[in-house]
Specification:
Elements lengths: L1 H10 L17 E7 L6 E2 L4 E2 L1 H12 L3 E7 L2 H9 L5 E7 L2 H4 L3 E2 L4 E3 L1 E6 L16 E4 L4 H11 L5 E4 L4 H9 L5 E5 H7 L6 E6 L4 E7 L5 H17 L2 H10 L7 H13 L1 H14 L4 H12 L19 H6 L8 H18 L8 H12 L1 H13 L7 H7 L19 H21 L10 E2 H12 L7
Parallel strand pairs: 1-4, 1-5, 9-10, 9-11
Antiparallel strand pairs: 2-3, 4-14, 5-13, 6-13, 7-13, 8-11, 8-12
Helix pairs in contact: 11-12, 11-14, 12-18, 14-15, 15-16, 15-18, 16-17
């Protein structure tokens, strides 16, 4: 880390004039340097996504500024860009450290996490720092974990580590899963997000240290004033629950998914999905749905088996009942195309029937719950939610009360009686997880190179896809 700081300091005399950056004012351009990745910023089905992206886009909107995004391939490049005065903000999942604070201005923390040691399940599991001796340890290039490991190496020379030439946590986890390393040190949010792609990689133990994730501002003399505006925005986002919602959406949707389920799904993605993906994408485009959402529903229903049959008589890729199939014009439930089109049409019908004041993504999650248990039961759950002081327009509130539909102290008093409310909760949770995983798997094919103009990116995506997805 000290060596990196020296390099940055040496760069300072040659820095560009910081006045090339606009002031924080309506109509001006906000320049952000970030990294491409699932926890930071990536191109989704037809629009940008990522926790960091959503946050700095919201900040730009709050300042009525246009947004220009630059993408770095390493953490060093993030800070080099900032030091040269070529970005207002570095927002790349950056952990606050005293070394970084010596040069740059940090904002209020917006995410708290912990360092985690990860290993491959079935291999030797270290349970404390002393167990890391003689193990092959890997970290990302530019990782703040390097300082900690260097200190540990001075105390115990048997603790050695390697730095991978990557700023992607997925590359680190790949080393573990492929048995090219024994353990890795990552931030908890990075691991939480990426574990769904690497089901064999598990947490060995968590360090007690709390890590603050912050944005950094560069060396411009206006940085302290910019910091005041950013901190006011972050404080408001925290108080209004926006940050908690983002954290839940990006890190919390698969908490109950076992590694065995993850592995089964990943195998199906590799072996079964390629056969059906073109058809799923075609049907999704026809009905203006995110193809990953439609694929996730089909996997939840039938594991992409067009001949699937349940004990209750539902059939096909989308497991349609006879009445539903008749309603959506499906004559042969075992025909994959008919089934997918019928399921997509049925979901669209449910989305239209929901009250207009339910926004996304809550609208999609509630439509999925209705797909599972019926609109009448969903509406009763929404009334229960409102009656108990919750917001019937928010999925997280309705989700808490869906299990009441099978509570013997509640359902006898409901107009439509008993429903498997907990099953509907699990149903939606699983689909959210599968959709998010498919989106992550698509990131390598949608890598973004710098420099990047957001308006141009959105326009290009719209030209290519020509439909608005229902996504996370």
């Amino acid at each position: 880390m000290r060596q990196w700081l020296l390099i940055v300091i040496l760069l300072l005399p040659g820095c560009g004039n910081p006045t090339v950056l606009d002031a924080f004012a309506p109509g001006n351009e906000l320049v952000v340097i970030t990294r491409n990745g699932p926890t930071t910023y990536y191109l989704g089905a037809n629009e940008p996504a990522g926790l960091e992206y959503e946050l700095f886009q919201a900040f730009a909107d709050s300042q009525e500024m246009t947004l220009r995004i630059k993408v770095a391939s390493t953490i060093e490049e993030v800070f080099d860009t900032l030091a040269r005065g070529e970005a207002h903000i570095a927002a790349a999942g950056l952990t606050q450290s005293s070394a970084r604070d010596e040069l740059f201005t940090s904002t209020l923390p917006y995410l708290k996490q912990h360092p985690v040691v990860v290993y491959k399940a079935g291999q030797f599991r270290p349970r404390k720092l002393g167990d890391l001796a003689n193990l092959d340890i890997v970290i990302m290039q530019g990782s703040h974990h390097r300082t900690r490991l260097s200190m540990l190496s001075e105390i115990d020379p048997r603790i050695e580590f390697r730095v991978l030439e990557t700023a992607q946590s997925s590359a680190v986890l790949s080393e573990i899963e492929a048995n090219r390393a024994d353990v890795a040190l990552l931030d908890s949010s990075e691991f939480s997000m990426q574990q769904r792609l690497y089901p064999r990689v598990a947490k060995a133990f968590e360090l007690k240290e709390t890590l603050n994730t912050v944005w950094y501002l560069g060396l411009d003399e206006r940085a302290p004033k910019w910091r005041e505006k950013i901190n006011a925005f972050l404080a408001k986002a925290t108080n209004e629950g926006r940050l908690a919602d983002l954290e839940n959406r990006y890190f919390g949707s698969d908490a109950d998914t076992s590694r065995i389920e993850l592995f089964t799904f990943q195998r199906a993605v590799e072996s079964t999905l390629p056969k059906w993906r073109p058809l799923i994408e075609s049907v999704a485009k026809e009905f203006r749905l995110d193809w990953q959402l439609l694929a996730a529903i089909a996997y939840q229903e039938s594991h992409w088996d067009p001949k699937a049959k349940s004990p209750t008589g539902v059939r096909g890729m989308m497991m349609l009942t006879r009445p539903t199939a008749k309603e959506v014009g499906v004559k042969d439930r075992l025909d994959a195309e008919q089934s997918l089109r019928g399921g997509a049409r049925f979901l669209r019908n449910l989305l239209r029937r929901l009250p207009n004041d339910i926004g996304e993504p809550d609208r999609t999650w509630m439509a999925l719950a209705a797909y599972n248990i019926g609109m009448a039961h969903l509406e009763e759950a929404r009334r229960l939610t409102e009656g108990k002081g919750g917001d019937p327009h928010l999925w997280q509130d309705v989700r808490k009360h869906l299990p009441d539909l099978q509570n013997p102290n509640v359902y006898p008093h409901l107009r439509h009686g008993f429903a498997r409310g907990q099953e509907a909760v699990t149903y939606v949770d699983n689909i959210r997880h599968y959709q998010a995983t498919l989106a992550l798997l698509d990131i390598p094919s949608q890598a973004i190179s710098a420099p990047l103009n957001l308006q141009e990116l959105t326009a290009t995506a719209d030209e290519l896809l020509q439909w608005t997805p229902l996504s996370l």
